[in-house]
Amino acid sequence: MSGHRAADVAVIGAGLAGLTAARELTRSGHSVVVLEANERVGGRTVNVEVAPGVVADGGGQWVGPGQDHILALIDELGLATFDTHIHGRHVYLRDGRRKLFTGPIPPMSRAAFADFAQAQLRLERMARSVPVDRPWAAKRARRWDGTTFGRWIDVNTLTREARRLLTLCFTIVNGEDPHSTSLLLMLSRIASAGGIGHLIEVTGGAQETRVAGGTQLIALTIAERLGDRVVLGSPVTEVVRDGDGALVRSHRAEVRARHVIVAMAPADADRIRFTPELPVRRAALQRKWHNGTESKLFAVYDRPFWRDQGLSGMALTDLPVAGFVIDNSPPDGSLGILLTFVGTAGAGYGLTWSDEILDDPEARRAAFVADLTTIFGPRAAHPVDLLEKDWAHEPWISGCVAARAPGLTTQYTTALTDPVGRVHWASAETATRNEGYMDGAVSEGKRVAQRIAREL
Amino acid sequence: MSGHRAADVAVIGAGLAGLTAARELTRSGHSVVVLEANERVGGRTVNVEVAPGVVADGGGQWVGPGQDHILALIDELGLATFDTHIHGRHVYLRDGRRKLFTGPIPPMSRAAFADFAQAQLRLERMARSVPVDRPWAAKRARRWDGTTFGRWIDVNTLTREARRLLTLCFTIVNGEDPHSTSLLLMLSRIASAGGIGHLIEVTGGAQETRVAGGTQLIALTIAERLGDRVVLGSPVTEVVRDGDGALVRSHRAEVRARHVIVAMAPADADRIRFTPELPVRRAALQRKWHNGTESKLFAVYDRPFWRDQGLSGMALTDLPVAGFVIDNSPPDGSLGILLTFVGTAGAGYGLTWSDEILDDPEARRAAFVADLTTIFGPRAAHPVDLLEKDWAHEPWISGCVAARAPGLTTQYTTALTDPVGRVHWASAETATRNEGYMDGAVSEGKRVAQRIAREL
């Protein structure tokens, strides 16, 4: 496992981008070593064991139409998918009033519905002027990158209800408060997805499909086939470049390689010392980058009891913790799992995650169960288990979802993707289509592998 | 130097905040160990040796009226100060036209002057409603924290000239493009400084005074008196908290302490593993924090020749590299040094630092000399030396100037300063007065030391 090795390509990071690149290169006959800091593969996909044989997705969870790269990979690996459970009526709870609904549109007031629709229409119209492969080239790029999506929502919605719903939806999608996210970046994602509906909807949208056995199974399956090409528990400390390639120093192995793929989010790449130093724009970009740090909370029940009541398990509410709830049960319904997202986002913007809920896991879990009981009735008061996957404290992964602060896109442009000599960058963040999604990570792993294969 | 130690207080970081705290605690009879990752003290103050006995300030450089903590410390340590050289006429160069002026206001067009004045007036009026110790409590805090200062400038100035000048001034002050800086944070700084003039002016402002021998001499003098209480080259990897205090593990020493002071910028604190984990809000804040990464470029001449021409050495221009130039010579004028700031900020916003200038040190230096020649004449074409202090590549300091992205202030509020048990936070960033300045670091070192002394 350890010691000195030589390979055509050293891959840093055994998430979906790194493993996809390693798989592609191996298939085309090149030698590869994958160095992973954690003691597991999968990066931001991780299976949380709920019961023997039952897993919940702790990180990246859904795939949907238009995500051709990840769907093809799942198929090639022989993994099974299933539809996200969305049958039945959803709960819309606001100001203490609980309404049931079907379809993608919650029963807002008429004014809020019109308001939501006009905001959506305007955002989609603005998004049409953003070239997804070069968002900084949009005519209004500087203007839109100089402000936040949250500020746009505040200024351009008229009703509290629509404003709150938009904020909630995109807090979940972005893994952070829209008041920290560049408006330009958001428009670029809307453009890439072909509209807001695709981003926030389940059926026909990016949340349509799940992977049987959990999404980490994708990485586990690839890694198993790569065998001892994957070195775990081996954080890379240094990459020394020269004319022939680079020497990659890690905890358990030193790899001499002709090309290097850094398959991590930009902020995580900053943990590596490069010799010679990275260009200023790349170095600064890594230091200014952050990802979203939201957590996932799971309430586990002996069965998905809400289905008996004709409920889907999906809910949109104004409750303290469970603002958005979705059925996260395994495909056979052998256990019932309800999922919500919780984090630092939204404080002060109408979402009401308090310091107590954020800082005290016990208080957070109690509040979650209380909310679920309000939504789904007394049966929800007695989960058999409560689990949490926290993305704010991972030692080697500084956040889960791809976020982006104002200014970054227009100031750093191609520094995100430009190779530095024979060092290449690939992660969900470098993708122009489905940026931040598992599909983006897979397409980037392929793109970089193909580029290197041409040069080897 | 190394091994196991016990102390009342372990201080992590030997910058101004950490050393001030260690000095205060030692003076009040408490035992202290200071653990510093670098092989030098000073943090973001560092002397760049220009010639034997001649230094330039590579980091924090100026002090001014209202910065009582740092001024008192300099005095107590017996260090000398001198006035920033500003005598003579300054150069204002725009669209190829070079004008000379005196006083703080460059000879803008009348329209630009009126425009600058109205923007300044409005910003100062807005700033008056921001409580500097709790900026998130301002009535319009959410609105202002949801957008950038750069966007405000773009919308609220009418002339290209005023817009560019405001952008340039605050790019220098903030160490990053205003399109990445929260408007609320900027208003809070304006409120703390008592106005924009104080922030950007030399005489009577925050750039009025320098330290003879360089600002790092402050840290060097304190550290010398602390003796072997300071352990260099000893990055802290872990802080394990318990009821009695904490065990602080570092490369060269393991310290058992009753209190811990983390005297680093929030982003740098994220390099340490805490057990038990930090509260979610604090952990997320650290991961979302970034500092400005601008560099300082120095052109060294055998003497300050511009003074012969009656020039101060200060210039405001629209040239590619030298947008702002100031005389940075030693107090005796034995050498002439001209300083500019260069970095990733400003790209695409009328400032024209190109990729080539940013990524190629040779091209950057050549462009700098070309600009200086345009400003100060042919004599400037032949510097005896060109030096650079780069803040984008420091291994243990992830940026120099305190910046702040939109959303951070209102979402994380007191997580920046709230102690976690017996772990306390002190740096230029935690200060409410003179945040981001050396004075803020010193006042925070004192504040935390006094608090701990009361508890010991």
TrEMBL record, chains A, B:
Point out the coiled-coil segments of this chain. none
- Transmembrane intervals: none
List, separated by semicolons, the cofactors it needs: FAD
Does Coiled coil show up as a keyword for this record? Answer: no
Keywords from UniProt, A to Z, are: Oxidoreductase
Q: Which residues form the Amine oxidase domain?
A: 16-452
Instruction: List the Gene3D superfamilies hit by this protein, alphabetically.
Output: 3.90.660.10, FAD/NAD(P)-binding domain, Guanine Nucleotide Dissociation Inhibitor, domain 1
Recorded family membership: Belongs to the flavin monoamine oxidase family.
Output this protein's name: FAD-dependent oxidoreductase
Q: Which organism is it from?
A: Pseudonocardia eucalypti
